[in-house]
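Input for the complex:
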Amino acid sequence: MASNARPEADPLVIFYLVVRRLSEALAAPLSDADATLQPNPEASPAKWHLAHISWFFETFVLRDHVPDYRLFDAAWPFLFNSYYDGEGERHARPRRGMLSRPTLDGILAYRRHVDSAMAAAIPGLPAAVRELVTLGLNHEQQHQELLLTDILAAFAENPLAPAYSTPKPQGRGDAPPLEWIEGRTGIVEIGASNEGFAFDAERPRHRTLLHPHALASRCVTNGEWIEFIADGGYRTCTLWLSDGWAWATGEAASAPLYWRRNEANWQRFGLDGVQPIEPAAPVTHISYYEADAYARWAGARLPTEFEWEAAAVHHDPSSGNQLDDAGAFAPRPAGAGGALRQMFGDVWEWTASAFLPYPGFVPAEGTVGEYNGKFMSGQMVLRGGSCATPRGHLRASYRNFFAPHHRWQFTGLRLARDG
Amino acid sequence: MASNARPEADPLVIFYLVVRRLSEALAAPLSDADATLQPNPEASPAKWHLAHISWFFETFVLRDHVPDYRLFDAAWPFLFNSYYDGEGERHARPRRGMLSRPTLDGILAYRRHVDSAMAAAIPGLPAAVRELVTLGLNHEQQHQELLLTDILAAFAENPLAPAYSTPKPQGRGDAPPLEWIEGRTGIVEIGASNEGFAFDAERPRHRTLLHPHALASRCVTNGEWIEFIADGGYRTCTLWLSDGWAWATGEAASAPLYWRRNEANWQRFGLDGVQPIEPAAPVTHISYYEADAYARWAGARLPTEFEWEAAAVHHDPSSGNQLDDAGAFAPRPAGAGGALRQMFGDVWEWTASAFLPYPGFVPAEGTVGEYNGKFMSGQMVLRGGSCATPRGHLRASYRNFFAPHHRWQFTGLRLARDG
Amino acid sequence: MASNARPEADPLVIFYLVVRRLSEALAAPLSDADATLQPNPEASPAKWHLAHISWFFETFVLRDHVPDYRLFDAAWPFLFNSYYDGEGERHARPRRGMLSRPTLDGILAYRRHVDSAMAAAIPGLPAAVRELVTLGLNHEQQHQELLLTDILAAFAENPLAPAYSTPKPQGRGDAPPLEWIEGRTGIVEIGASNEGFAFDAERPRHRTLLHPHALASRCVTNGEWIEFIADGGYRTCTLWLSDGWAWATGEAASAPLYWRRNEANWQRFGLDGVQPIEPAAPVTHISYYEADAYARWAGARLPTEFEWEAAAVHHDPSSGNQLDDAGAFAPRPAGAGGALRQMFGDVWEWTASAFLPYPGFVPAEGTVGEYNGKFMSGQMVLRGGSCATPRGHLRASYRNFFAPHHRWQFTGLRLARDG
Amino acid sequence: MASNARPEADPLVIFYLVVRRLSEALAAPLSDADATLQPNPEASPAKWHLAHISWFFETFVLRDHVPDYRLFDAAWPFLFNSYYDGEGERHARPRRGMLSRPTLDGILAYRRHVDSAMAAAIPGLPAAVRELVTLGLNHEQQHQELLLTDILAAFAENPLAPAYSTPKPQGRGDAPPLEWIEGRTGIVEIGASNEGFAFDAERPRHRTLLHPHALASRCVTNGEWIEFIADGGYRTCTLWLSDGWAWATGEAASAPLYWRRNEANWQRFGLDGVQPIEPAAPVTHISYYEADAYARWAGARLPTEFEWEAAAVHHDPSSGNQLDDAGAFAPRPAGAGGALRQMFGDVWEWTASAFLPYPGFVPAEGTVGEYNGKFMSGQMVLRGGSCATPRGHLRASYRNFFAPHHRWQFTGLRLARDG
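Predicted:
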C-alpha cells in the first residue's frame, strides 16, 4: 500500500474505524461510574477495556512503528497493559476497579488520539505491521464481547438490577425437536488455512481422525435445563466430574448463573434486566462442569472441538464480507447451518476438548506471541460464538477457551453421541 | 419545643443543616465514579456514606416518628443500612463498591428529600426523638471523617495518585522537645456526664484509680519514626507483640501506611497527593501494633485511656459553642492543652486500653442500641481526634475504637511512662 | 543452698521430680501414634509437650548454667522451642504433627537425661537460677493441662471416639440454686505479692477500684445452657457481640464444643469418651463469645478479673503446701469458697477483662521475658482453673488467657451483675 | 473355576497373596506413628492405604458376593472409603492423619481377616467377580506406589530427615548423549485391547492419527536440569504457561521438590534420606508446569500420550508373566526400549495430553465405575511408570494422571519435537 494513498481509500482504515466506533457505541449507555466497576478479578471495567484495546495499538503499532508518535500519557501504559510480561510491570489485575481516574471522557479522548494517529499511519505501514493492526482489531472485537459480559456481571451485583439495554421481544413457541445429525468420519482437515486472519492457536491447519458420531441439531434449551434441575441434576453427585461436584457444592450452584426464582417461576438477569426465562432459547451462563453433568444426565456427551468444526465448516459465516459485518450483531439468517442450527452467534458451546496446541503450533514472535499460547493449560475449548460476539468475528476455526468453572460468558452446550 | 415554632428559629434545625451541608461540601471534589469506589471491605464509598447517614434519619426519625412521611425509594434501605441487624437484611458490606447506581446526583436528591422533611419535622418532635436527631448528627460527623479516610484509601490504590485537595503549606522548623508531664494520680472521674450529647459507650461517668505516671507533652513525630525505622524497628521481633509481629511480617510492613521511598527520601500519599514527609508533624497511619512496638523501642508505653482523659479534660474543646464548630476543621488554637500539646485534632492516639464497657454501662434501647456495645471486643481505644475530625465533634470523653491492625485512619501515638 | 547437700534433701528437687513424674503419668495411656497427633495448629502433640518442657530446662538451666552439660541431641532444640524468638529459628508450629520421630520412647529417654542432670544440679544452683527452675516447673504444669486438652481435641477428630480414661461416676441431683453474693467495693489490692512464685503477668501487686456488684454463687450449668439453646440463644444475633456473631455463624456453632445430639438427648465427648450430659455440672468448652452472649441472655454480665480475684482471694487453695499438691488433681474440698462455690478447679471462668499489663508491669529479663508479655493483645482473661489444672497450680492471682473464639480448653463462666 | 478347587492351585489366589504381601513388606520399616502421618490433604497415611485397599476387597467382593461374610468392624468402612460416593458418607480426606486408632497392628489384623476370607472365596467366585478381584489387586498396586510417595512426603516434613530405606549405590558416569528417535506417523492403534486387565480409561482401543515427530532417546537428567536452573529457567516468565508462572511464583519454586542446596552443591531428600544429586539420573519430582517450561527452554515440547504409547508398545514389559512380576521392583533390563531408553520404571513422564476419555469410553458399571471417569478434568496424563511402580503394573497403555502442579510423585519428562 503506497504511503500517499488517501486513508479513506484503504479498506483497513475503514475496517479499523468501524470496529473502533462499535466499541464506543457499546459503552454509550454507561456512566463514568458504571464504566469503573470491576465485579470480580476476572472481569474488567468497561473503561479499562476501552483503554486497553487502544494501548494495544499505541504500543505495538504506533510506538514501535510510527516515528514521532507521542504517547498520549506516559503513565497510562502501566495501567492498561493486560498480561504482556514482555511489556514490563503493570497495575494489578484485581485492582482495575479502583481507577475512577482517568475518567471515561479522558479515555475517549485517548481513543481519539490513537485513532487519529492510526488512520493517518495505516496506509503507509508495511504488510507485517498491517497484520498487527488486523490482530489488534480482532483483539478489540474480543474485548467488545468482554465489555458486555463484564458489565452484565457488574450490574448483577447491584440489588437495583439496572438494565443496560431495553428488552427485545421474546421468541414465541417451542424449540424444534432435537434431531441427531451424523457427523463426518475419518480424516478431516482442521484449523485455519494460511489465508486471511486467524489467531495463532487456530493454526496450523492439519489433519485429524474422527470416529463415528452424531451431533444434536440444536443447542440445549432453557426448558430442557429446567427438567434437569427438576430431576435433581444439581444434587446427584454421580452425574458430575469430581472437580465439578466440588465446584457445585462449594458454590451451592443450583441453576445457571443469573437465574433466580420468583415464587414458582424462573427468571434471569440479563443485559435487558430481569426477564422471564424463555423456554425455547438456548440455555446460557453455565460452566463446563454443568454442561458435562447435563450431558451425562441426558445419556450423551459433549462434542470434541474437532467434531464441531468439521460440521460447522460448511456453514461458516466468515465466508462473507468481513467489512460489512465488522460491527453488527445481526440476527443469524434463518436456517443457518442447515440441519444443524444455532452453530454461530447464539451461545458459546462447551466442547469436550482441552485447549492445547495443534500439532506444529508455533506462537507468534515477540510480545504478541503471549497472545494465546501461554493459556494452554487448565482451560476447555468453546466453539461457535454468542449473541454478544461481533458477527464479523465468527468463524468455524475459532477457538475460544475458558476455565471449566467460568460461566459469566454466554456459554451453553450442544449434545453429541458416539455413532 | 412547640410545633408551631419557625423551623429556622430552632437551634437543632440549624445544627442539622450545618452538619448536613458539610457532608456535601466534603463530597464536592468527587466525581460520581470517585464516589463509587470501595478500596477494601472495611471502607465504604463516599456515595454510600452520604446515603447511609440519610437513611439513619429517614428510618429512625422520619419513618418511625413522622406521620405521612413517604420513603424516597423503598428499595434503598436495603442498600444503605450498615449493620443494624434489627433493621433486617442488607446489602453485603464488601459489595458496596458495586453501586454505580444510584448516581451521586440521585443520592444528593435523596439528601434534599430527607432534609426537607427533617427541617419541617424537627421543631415538632418530642424530646426523645430530638435526641435521636442529635445522635444522627453525631453519627453523620463520624461518617464525615470516614468519608475522608476512605476516599484517601481509594485514591491510594490508583497509580496516578490523584489528589483530593490542594496541598497546604508545610510547617517549618523542628518539633518542640518532648517533655514528660506528670499525670493525675488517685481517684478521678471518667466519662461523660449526663449533660449534653455523648455516645452510650462514654457513660456512665464513674470513678477510676490512676497510678503515678507521666505523659509526653506531644505526639511522636515523623522524624522520630524515621529513627525507629533506621534502627531496625520493623525487623526486631522482640519489640513486638506476638500478634503484631505476625501482622508486620504478613503485611511486610516497613513504614506507616501510605509512606513510600523516593530514592533517599520518604514521601507520603495524602489527601493532597504525594508530598514529602514533614519531620516535625505527628506520625500517622500506624497500627496499634506499630504504636506499641515504637513505645517499647522508646523505653516507654502507651497511656491508658483513663490517664489520657484525666489529662485532657482541662483542655476540652467541647466547652465552646458546638454549633459554631459543627462544620469546621479549624486549626487548633496555638498552645491548646497547655504543657500538653496536640491533644485534640491532630491524630487519633492509640491507647493501651481495650474497648470495653464502663462499669454500669447500659446500651441504648432499640435498634440504635446496636450503636457501640456490640463492637466491644477485639478493639483498642483511641483518643483525641484527628485533622479529619469535625471540630465540634472533639471532646475529652470521646472513645474511638479500631482493631489493632487498622491504620487507614489518621492514627498516631503519644508516649507515657510509669511515674 | 550448699552444693554438697544431698539432692534428695532439697525440696526443689523433690518438687521437680514430682512434677516431672506427673507429666509422664499423664502420657502413660497414649501410644506413640496417639502422642504424635496435632489436631489443629494451636494444639500440640503430647510428645511435643513432653519434649518442649524438657527443652526449657535443658536450655535455660542446663545449657546456660551447668558447665559440661552436653545436649541430649543437638538437632532437637530446633524441634522443641515453642515461641522464644530469642532462641532462634524453630520448626513451624502447625507442622508439629509431622514428628513421628523422635519416638515417644526417645522422648522419654530425653526426659531421663535432663532429669538426671537437673536433680544433680539443682542443689548447687544460685538463687536466681533456682527461680528459673520454679518457673520451668510451673511452665510444665501449664503444659500438663494442655497435654490433656490437646489429646482430647485429637481424639475428638477420630470417628471411633477413643477414650483417654475410664469414666468417673456422674454426679447426681440438681445444682444448688444460684445466689447473688455481694462483692467487695472500693479500693482493693490485686495481683501476686513478691512472696512465692507467680508469673510476671500477675505482678506487680497494685490497688484498683471496684464498683458495687454481685457474683453468682456458682458457675452456669449444663442444664441452664440447654435452656439457652432451647430459647434460640445461638440464633438471636442481638445477644451477641459483632465478632461473636460472625464467629458463631462462620462456625455454625449451636452448642458447646464436643456436644452432640443423640436423638432427643445431648451427649458430650470427653476424656472418658462419649457420655450423657450431666445437667448439674458446670458448662464447659465454650468460647468467650458464647459466655458473653449467655450472660446477656440471662440479664447479667461477666465479672471483671478484679471482681473475681477480690472475691477469690479468701479461698485461695495455694495457701497450703505446694509440694503436697504438685501432682494431684484432687477433688475440691466440699464447700470451698464459702458461699462462693466452684471458684477453683472446675472450669476456667471467662472474665470481662482483656489480658493487659498491670500498672508498672515489667517483663522478666532475657528470653524468658517473652513468657507472657508478648501475648497481651487480642486475648481475654480467665480465672480459677479447671478440672485439668494441677491442684498445686491454682491460686487467686493466676491469669490465664485465650483468644475469644477458643474453646478447646475447659472453659466456662460465672455470672455477675452491677450491684 | 470349580468351587472345590484347592485355593493354592488358583493362580488368582497366588497373585492375590503376592500382591498383598508386598504391601505389608512396604510398611515394614514404619512405626505405628510413622504410618499415621498425613503430610498434606492429597497424601494419605500408610495405615490408611493398608486399610483402604482391604476395604475395597471387603466391600466390593466379600460383602457383596460372599454369603455369611462378617465385616471385620462395622465402624471401619466409614474410615476407609476413599471417594466412592455411591458407598455413602466417609471420613473427611484431610483428616485421615488423625487416626492414631486403629493401630497399625489392628490394621494388619484386618488384612489377615480379609485375606483369609478372600483366599477361601476366590476359587469359587464367578468370572465377573474375579475381574473385580483383579481390579482390586491393580488398585492395591497403585496404592503401593502412593504409600511410598506419601511416606516420602511425610518424612520430608521432619527436620530430622529420617530415611525409609538404606541408600543404593549411586550410578557412575555420564548419561548417554540425547538422540532424537523418529516416531511413528499416520494412523496407529492406541489403548488396551480387550485381552487381559486394564483400567477403564485405557479403553477402548482405537485409531488415532500421528503427525511426524521425534522422541528423545532418554529422559531429561538432573544435570540438564541444573543447567536450566543456572540459566534462570525459574525466573524467566516467558518460558512458562500463565498458570505455571502463577504456581512457580506462588510457591517460590526454584528447583524440583525435595532438592536443597548445601553450599555449592545440590542435594535431594529421598526414601534413602539426604543424598547428593546424581547428574546422570532422570530428574524427578517436577510439576507439569516445570516440565513444560523446561521443554520450551530446550526448544522442544512434551510428547503427546499417543506419540509416547506408539513408541512404547514394542517394549512393553507386561508381555511377560504378570505373576512373576507382581511384587518386584526389579531393575529394568539393560537396553530396554532399544534406542529408546528409560520408557518404563524410571520416572512417570509428563505428556502434553489432558486426561480425557477415549472415543467410545464407557465407565465401568456400579460404584467401581467411579474409578477413573470422574477425574477426567484438570489433569494431565503421565506415561511409563516410576522406580516406585510395581514391575508387574507397568504397561504401554497405562494412563496415569495428576494435576499440573503436583510433584510429590516420581515425575519427570522426556522431550519431543515436531518431525
